[in-house]
Amino acid sequence: MKSNNRFFFRLLSLIFLLHWNISSAQNPCEGRGACDAMLINKGRPWDFQVPANESPRQLISQSPDKKEQQVLDALTGVFNSSSMRGVALLNGDKLIHLALKENIPEKAMFYGLSVGKTVTAIAAGQAICQKLITLETKVSDVLPEFANTDMGKATLKHLLTMSSGTWEGLRDANVATQEQFREIWSGRLTIKDLMLQPKVNTAEKELFGKLRQPGAVFSYRNSDPEMVALMVAKVSGVPFSNWQAESLLKTIPIEGPAVLRTDRHQNSFASGAVQMNLMD
Length: 280
Prior knowledge:
Layout: H1 2-20, H2 36-39, E1 48-50, E2 60-61, H3 66-81, E3 86-91, E4 94-100, E5 109-111, H4 115-129, H5 139-142, H6 156-160, H7 178-186, H8 191-195, H9 198-201, H10 223-236, H11 240-249, E6 258-260, E7 274-277
Parallel strand pairs: 2-4
Antiparallel strand pairs: 1-6, 3-4, 5-7, 6-7
């Protein structure tokens, strides 16, 4: 029962994090939080579109056992009394429960927010398996424009473990201000331009001014996943969204369609820009 309780509270924590901890710079809703316009849409015209697959991998539906039912009862109560729009309960590849609020269509594409970080990490793993890059590859090894920066000293492993040692970012983990997001949406600024800004790629200062070294401290922020995407895009020779689609989403394969959010120059928002239906 203890393991089920841990699973339940982790699940609820993830749902509340995805639902409420959203950058106001990316939020079309009034105030903080998420409205349907933010969570459920079909992306922007310039985003990468993943087509539907006629033979997707299917989850195995099964009725909950006694322990799973206890988790499901608690989850259902929270779901029904909250503004959550959809929820899925899985045990491995077994689908225990799927629910959507009454006005949400089954094929609605949910903006996954930081679920995108997991997709980014797995796609990077695919590049490692194909021997395009290693965990010990440094940023500066593949992106020489970062050679004279603190970010350039970080390895792919440091980025995947969010321990590059660079600026920790804003309170919501973003490293772009509202004004910078507007510049990105307009196309005047790219994600790579953002990562090249000294404030973003310079090491944090520890006590007495000592610069933080890569691998020393875990710090949750969006800059490290964005750098993973830039590195994999460079070694693969294709935009990272293309790499995610071909090496991962189409390999599973998901049912689709799906959207991978990018800037207007095909740089992926690797820190949280995956839109898929809830089953995918």
